[in-house]
Design goal:
- By secondary structure, the chain is α+β, with helices and mostly antiparallel strands.
- The chain has three domains: about 35-125, Quinohemoprotein amine dehydrogenase alpha subunit, domain 2 (Lipocalin, Beta Barrel), CATH 2.40.128.120; about 145-240, Lipocalin (Beta Barrel); about 265-415, 3-Layer(aba) Sandwich (Glutaredoxin), CATH 3.40.30.
- The protein is about 20% helix and about 40% strand.
- The protein has helices at about 1-30, 295-310, 330-340, 355-360, 400-415, and strands at about 35-45, 50-60, 60-70, 70-75, 80, 85-90, 95-105, 105-115, 115-125, 145-155, 160-170, 175-180, 185, 190-195, 195-205, 210-215, 220-225, 230-240, 265, 270-275, 285-290, 315-325, 345-355, 375-380, 385-390.
- A hairpin with a 2-residue loop joins strand 3 (about 60-70) and strand 4.
């Protein structure tokens, strides 16, 4: 009898342990992240981090994750959770997160760009808070940096120096805005102004930007970080009349050349040339771009819509993609993602390696390629009517709106000729 009682107790104990193990396994395989606002901090160094707001929503058995920069919300479409591990892949760029769900309100891990060697640690914490931590000794009256600023990056380094326009909007301690250069813009920036200290950041899936500065006697003096690999000083002063060089004057047809000419393969490896019958007696926009380039992404969104509205009127668009990879299959896969994401139903060609020297060699009739993107507008006779260097995206506000209106009118006039 005692033996039977002992066996019964053992069986009960084993069943209890087994049930406990199953429950533990189920808990591990089904982590529950708290929904709502999160703050993601990229650790650029031991003392410096770049914060970005994140929104996490439950969607059936998975989660929708959005990276938030001011008015922009970027959705991560590939979120995979296995036990307490989470991976997030960007839908367009070759970047991804690998993290551990420490508990329902905390994730920590690494963000990778292109390859494992390019890694930045991160911690994500649930809770609604300011993008940058509010200091305890915050003054009741706060400096306000709203307006237009003349900016010099790397002013004392001639090899790296360039000018920019800083356009900022501030309400209380909350700041949005961007920097515009002759080659494009730094997209949607968001941050805070505390006392005389200025902070902005942005994460767009490919680029991670952090700006810090101090305002003294009307002058901003600070540092700009791009990921953990680039750091440079910048200074700025308010200047409502400051303008950059005309973007339509920076790239032009070299002496001795009359027209643009090229032949490159598309993603099906078919050679496409500007002299093909498809482009004859058409208005053609040749867009020099790269699938790794956020400004190019912004322009592709615009061009896809422009093409949809005007293809039946005689508009054609050819994107010349310069990729980080020299492998044709990899370069094709990268550009196909762009095409599908923006429903861009025009030609995309694999034009070469993504550097400005290679682009200039591929298109020797141009004086140089100083920016991705660059767009070339060609009339029905095959003559170049305009070359636009760079692109000011939706993060630039009125600059973007004005450019879109002007370009729509310009294309309409070319189509009417």
């Amino acid at each position: 009898m005692k033996n039977l009682l002992f066996i019964f107790i053992v069986l009960i104990t084993l069943a209890s342990c087994s049930e406990s193990s199953v429950k533990e396994k189920e808990t591990k395989s089904s982590p529950a992240l708290v929904e709502g606002d999160w703050l993601l901090e990229f650790q650029l160094s031991e003392t410096n981090s770049a914060p970005v707001n994140v929104i996490i929503n439950k969607n059936d058995s998975s989660y929708d994750i959005f990276f938030s920069n001011a008015a922009e919300k970027i959705k991560a479409k590939n979120v995979v959770i296995e036990e307490n591990n989470i991976t997030i892949h960007d839908p367009l760029f070759n970047t991804w997160f690998e993290g551990e769900i420490v508990n329902p309100t905390k994730i920590e891990g690494m963000w990778y760009k292109n390859r494992k060697e390019n890694a930045i640690p991160f911690i994500a914490i649930h809770g609604k808070s300011s993008r940058f931590k509010k200091p305890e000794n915050l003054k009741k009256t706060n400096e306000n940096i709203s307006g237009k600023w003349e900016v010099d990056f790397s002013k004392n380094n001639p090899d790296n120096h360039y000018k920019a326009i800083g356009q900022f909007q501030q309400v209380d301690n909350y700041v949005t805005g961007t920097f515009m250069t002759e080659t494009g813009d730094y997209r949607f920036l968001e941050g805070n102004m505390y006392n005389n200290n200025f902070y902005l950041s942005c994460f767009d899936g490919s680029h991670l930007f952090l700006f810090k500065a101090t305002l003294v006697h009307g002058k901003l003096t600070g540092v700009f970080w791009s990921g953990s690999h680039w750091e440079e000083p910048w200074v700025a002063s308010k200047n409502d009349s400051f303008e950059l060089s005309n973007p339509d004057s920076l790239t032009y047809l070299r002496e001795g050349y009359e027209k643009l000419a090229f032949s490159f393969p598309n993603t099906n490896a078919d050679t496409i040339s500007l002299t093909d019958e498809k482009f004859q007696n058409k208005v053609v926009i040749v867009n020099i771009m790269g699938p790794w380039c956020p400004n190019c992404k912004d322009e592709t969104a615009y061009l896809a819509e422009l093409y949809s509205k005007n293809k039946d009127k005689g508009l054609e668009i050819i994107a010349l993609s310069f990729d980080k990879s020299e492998n044709f299959e990899a370069a094709s896969a990268n550009i196909i993602k762009i095409q599908k994401n923006f429903s861009a139903n025009y030609e995309f060609l694999i034009a070469g390696k993504a550097n400005k020297i290679a682009a200039a060699e591929a298109l020797p009739m141009l004086n140089h390629i100083m920016s991705y993107p660059t767009s070339i507008f060609i009339d029905r006779e095959g003559n170049i009517q305009k070359i636009r260097t760079g692109f000011y995206g939706p993060g630039t506000g009125s600059y973007y709106t004005r450019y879109i209106e002007q370009t729509n009118d310009f294309v309409a006039k070319l189509l009417a000729e």
